[in-house]
Fold:
Amino acid sequence: MGTENSNHANFPQRPAAPFAAASQSTSSFLSSGPVFGSEASAFAATPAGAPQATRTLLSSGPAVGSEASGFRPIQPGRSNDPSTTPPPWSYVPTPLGASQRLPAPQFFSTAQVPPPHTSPLGQPVFSQPIRTPTGHVSSPPVSLYPQQQIPTVPMGSPPQSMNHVPSGRIVSPSSLDSSFSAPRPTFQPLQSGFPGYPSKQPTAVTQPPSMQSAPFVTHQGGYGPPRPSTSGPFLAHQGGYVPPPPVAAPQAVYSREQMQHQASGPPVGSVQGLTEDFSSLSLASIPGSLDPGLDSKALPRPLDGDIEQKSFAEAYPLNCNSRYLRLTTTAIPTSQSLVSRWHLPLGAVVCPLAEAPDGEEVPVVNFATTGIIRCRRCRTYVNPYVVFTDGGRKWRCNICALLNDVPGDYFAHLDASGRRIDLNERPELTKGSVEFIAPAEYMVRPPMPPLYFFLIDVSISAVRSGMLEVVAQTIKSCLDRLPGFPRTQIGFITFDSTIHFYNIKSSLTQPQMMVVSDLDDIFVPLPDDLLVNLSESRSVVDALLDSLPSIFQDNLNVESAFGPALKAAFMVMSQLGGKLLIFQNTLPSLGVGRLRLRGDDLRVYGTDKEHALRIPEDPFYKQMAADCSKCQIAVNIYAFSDKYTDIASIGTLAKYTGGQVYYYPSFHSTIHQEKLSHELARDLTRETAWEAVMRIRCGKGVRFTSYHGNFMLRSTDLLALPAVDCDKAYAAQLSLEETLLTTQTVYFQVALLYTSSSGERRIRVHTAAAPVAADLGEMYHQADTGAIISLFSRLAIEKTLSYKLEEARSSIQHRIVKALREYRNLYAVQHRLGGRMIYPESLKFLLLYGLSLCKSVPLRGGYADAQLDDRCAAGYTMMALPVKRLLKLLYPSLVRVDEYLVKDISQSHDFNFSRLPLTAESLDSRGLYVYDDGFRFVVWFGRTLSPEIAVNLLGKDFATDFLRVTLSEHGSEMSRKLMGILKKFRETDPSYYQLPHLVRQGEQPREGFFLLANLVEDQVGGMSGYLDWVMQIHRQVQQNA
Ligand SMILES: [Zn+2]
Structure:
């Protein structure tokens, strides 16, 4: 967030304050009133006399340090009885003197705090696992025949429960969130900036003030000159209008004479994108009948993964890479009527910090004293599409067309073709992605240090599952790799029925623990010593992490004062912000924010009340999320329970703070240790952008109207992102503001203003252009299925928060049908396609991905087809996934590996496995298969697989119940090769760790749960198979066609 310039001019048609306005961007800080200095002394404190217990972590001997006198030694292995009996150690009221410097509580007004519960310590809540009820709700069979009216045939009857919901399910961690629809802004502010990423960028180059007379400035600084941007023609027109490409002769099987693109303005070379033809499938011409000739093998499948059209990128080489920004169609409709006939989502998916391969890092630019060059009206950042005129003294904004002056320091002469002569030294004028170093006016406070705060459940289940130990070890192993050394800050709180604070100030030799048991009036003891500089307190932090598991090893406490502990963590962090990592094992049972078992009333399912189970019941969580967002705190949730834990409520914290939900149901360290370690380590060590805001600007006539993902909207179009990283993507829907666009090209600019871990304020800017099309066919032909499915999935998941699952699925089906019908109307009659199903090549996988989406965990079946927490966790996760990862989750890879395992070792480096269709027909009982959805592996052993292979892979465990077998490397060559394959698969995307689940053919319910239910092409649990789905859609398309 930044102050954005104060001298922005008003955008004529959009009156309100541009986003840059200090009043908006600074409000979060100001309103929360944090102190910016290092003296974060404003922590809420206990009212005088509140009980406060303290103890050191040392079991013997007084703690070192002046505070020692106030602490009692810890009894190792205390037993923490949830009942009203006080814990074994006694609480020592803090002497007034010790707490007098703590100001009075100021963060929560009583109005925000739910009324105190009647019994101070609460009653133990016996959480019941929510298991699949045995009674099925019968539902009418789903007709495969089209309904009379609109195509909302449910895809499959809801609750046909699959009888395989084993208890040991592991579902990918998740974080789902939904977004809010932006209120319709009446104007579109503009600008934003964001600082960049230290670790990967090439040395920043300070742009020299250009001397007017120096046509050829030698490069200075470390920035390598951009590759001569190939296309001369483009550079010549930096900015402005680019001539439309020649119209290519269609190569389609069917003529495409009407595929005009007069309105599109891609530069020469974009021809290929226009020449693709539509495809067709021969289906029955009579509704209800199946063409006997239709071979399901002929149906299109994305077995090569997400292949993006290259033509667009080639046509617009100055655009940012599609890893940062993908439009659902790269032909922007020129009119409202086209928009209404498009039927699919119109918008973009943005992943502002996507990881770039080596050599493609985003260049960093430092304008130093020149100041960042931006349009004075709309605040667009200078980019490759602006046009320099008037001998180089003016530049025209590509977004709003205003003619701006070129500051003297930035002046360069133009050559004969109108190019700036210093173009090759100006990455901001030649690259679609660039990062600016932001000067002081983009700050409302000194850049914050990276800050990691851990809130850890230490109740009995957290300890017994091994979670506490794995978490402590993993954090310790990552301390050297946390970003931001030597500024990084760290702190810890643990909780069961009480809250435990840890004094880890650097002058101590051992950490000291302070226990607070008054949950109704939370205060923070010693606020200055709970959050410390990691490098200064490193030895104390190490000691704490080493001792945490043993301190609580005998803890019998079954309660969770999660809400009060969360408030305490918030108080400690609120001055600075940062990342709050929550490890939660037990349903919150005490104090504010306590939750109750929900979802055990089967009568609710399938009714209009069901959706309420998927949203938080207690407003406490949303309020806390809003408070966290304001204070630049991003929350990541790690949930581990084997019982219902109300992910719907707890996940809200991640949803509105730009965070993530990781879910490890029935966690046990013997099984899940590696997965948790890997994912936590990535969370801790990946480069992170702090205290960020993001805005997407676009050209006149279009506007983003809703945003979908994990964030909070700070104004109509400003996304507040307390922390962002490469694993987060956001989607937005686009609308036309005018009935007819008058331009030939629409420009988009994503700006992310953030603080880098190294403490620099930066603005990452991605710019892209797309042609305007007056032809509906062109829109379809330039469609991007990956982006469409990303938006679809977010919209559908959001819909499940207000409607039945079935309605969310129907809406997807409905829109697909309408889109294909519209497309059919364009071509079918003219080409006498009769009963054939036709669709544009660009959308050939849309049907299959749409089906997969309807079968994905957040949307599938009825109540029995996924447990409530699984559904919610998967929903939170999918809301944040970048496009490629989402597509892999929806249509995972399935490969056969046994042939490779027995092959001669000399050829063993050949990893070219061909992916198989996701249907049981792909499985040969003599084979060994690996299923990989990016979150987990399933290794399937065919019934007649050679016993030699099984023995080689599993040793003596080969005949054991697979529930108890974990895959590890045995001495054999085959075992080594299989582990090598899995490692290779993991390397393709390290964002999550795929834990292998072994499954034997025919072994239920394990096989059904882990594999069969995920073979999306098959009919499972009452939901259509791929072929049936295609037939259904086809019939509906033909209705009223
Ligand atoms: Zn402008």
